[in-house]
Design a protein that fits this description.
The chain is mainly α. Helices cover 78% and strands 0% of the residues.
Length: 405
């Protein structure tokens, strides 16, 4: 059993990469919050593309962007850290520039911009995790990763709020938001690069040689695809259920989303530190159980129908968010713990591939299940999440070799 970590704010900032890097994260997330939630609206309103064409272009951009992950993993394993983080931000600068250069009605160039933005968005999490893993170790690393997520969510929320207020300006405001987003990415890239963090590539063990692969973690990666669905529940599944099945006011959907953001910002670090007394794999399996319980709660809440249904869904969403927080605080930390130093980049790249795939398929899965009723939606999510939690708990080969603590 592990010892509970206690982190002071100053130590947490240092373990997360230092003050300049923390500012880079905040500026980058602020820029992302300004445009990313409204990229579909930009395509439809500013570029006058059809909604289906815009959505397909964005989805293809995300999926194809995952192709870059093996190269990112190899780059990280050669010792690069802050350079990869800065590169992921600079790539998004190029994506925003392409977006601004796209003429109205040109879906091909919009798709290219979405692809370039997707490459940057997919590369960043692995690069950030590798950087933190180089600066911090053990449970301090877990807390630092949690702090980075909390900071990023806070800045994303502020950016989205500013963008929402600015939307009254129409297409001119959307173009201005894109310009500010590009400038924010550029500033963040400069700050991240100025950290100048580089890790000496770890020497491979004499027994395995230089070609020792990253741990496969097959059960963990497969389970992660399902776990990731929880990230899209507040944004996709709950608004769909509240509006189309319970016929509730859209205000309830907004309230759930705001509550989710506030809880992640305020509880991500404390809850991760609290859970540090248990093994990371145990915590990750527990996250699956909590998420499954919340899905059953949503099933019960929707059975209440109009009136009490919407408030009940809002209450249960708190449980779902707690499961999300526990998952986010343990999943990446477990990967950084299991991976040998010389294969950390490749392990994180594989993990990000599973995360990106889950994020890509979950909207399609959720919207396909919802029309078949609450039992089909929440019952299916409960079943597959419990199976995933069980698979995570049973995959103990890595812990037997390294000892998860």
């Amino acid at each position: 059993m592990a010892t509970t970590t206690k982190m002071r704010p100053r130590a947490l900032v240092r373990a997360s990469g230092g003050p300049r890097y923390a500012v880079a994260l905040a500026v980058d997330a602020l820029g992302t919050g300004l445009l990313r939630p409204f990229l579909l609206l930009y395509g439809v309103t500013v570029l006058r593309l059809s909604a289906p064409a815009t959505g397909i272009a964005m989805t293809v951009g995300v999926v194809v962007g995952l192709v870059c992950m093996p190269a990112v993993g190899r780059w990280l394993d050669r010792g690069a850290r802050s350079t990869v983080v800065a590169a992921s931000m600079l790539v998004r600068v190029v994506g925003v520039a392409l977006l601004l250069a796209t003429p109205a009605g040109h879906v091909g160039l919009f798709a290219t911009a979405a692809l370039v933005l997707g490459v940057g968005n997919q590369a960043w999490p692995a690069a950030h995790a590798a950087l933190v893993a180089t600066v911090a170790h053990g449970r301090e690393r877990d807390a630092a990763l949690a702090a980075g997520r909390a900071l990023r969510n806070a800045a994303l929320g502020v950016g989205a709020l500013i963008a929402t207020v600015c939307l009254a300006g129409g297409t001119t405001a959307l173009r201005a938001l894109a310009v500010v987003t590009g400038l924010a990415y550029l500033v963040a890239a400069g700050l991240a690069w100025s950290v100048h963090l580089y890790a000496q590539p770890a020497a491979a063990s004499p027994q395995s040689g230089d070609a020792e692969p990253a741990p496969r973690m097959r059960a963990l990666l497969a389970a992660n695809v399902i776990y990731v669905f929880c990230l899209n529940v507040p944004e996709i599944a709950l608004p769909l259920v509240l509006v189309t099945q319970l016929h509730a006011s859209p205000v309830w959907s907004a309230a759930v989303f705001v509550a989710n953001t506030v809880l992640v910002v305020t509880l991500q670090v404390p809850l991760t530190v609290l859970m540090s007394r248990f093994s990371r794999r145990t915590v990750l399996a527990l996250a699956g159980v909590v998420l499954a319980a919340s899905y059953l709660g949503f099933l019960a809440a929707t059975s209440l129908g109009r009136g009490w249904g919407a408030p009940a869904v809002a209450v249960v969403s708190v449980v779902c968010t707690l499961g999300e927080i526990i998952y986010a605080g343990s999943a990446t930390a477990l990967v950084t713990h299991l991976a040998p130093p010389h294969a950390l980049g490749r392990a994180l790249a594989r993990f990000e591939l599973s995360t990106g795939f889950g994020l890509a398929v979950s909207p399609m899965a959720l919207t396909a299940l919802a029309p078949h009723g609450p039992t089909a939606l929440w019952g299916s999510l409960t079943a597959v999440t419990l199976v995933s939690a069980s698979a995570v708990a049973k995959e103990r080969g890595q812990e037997m070799r390294q000892g998860d603590s």
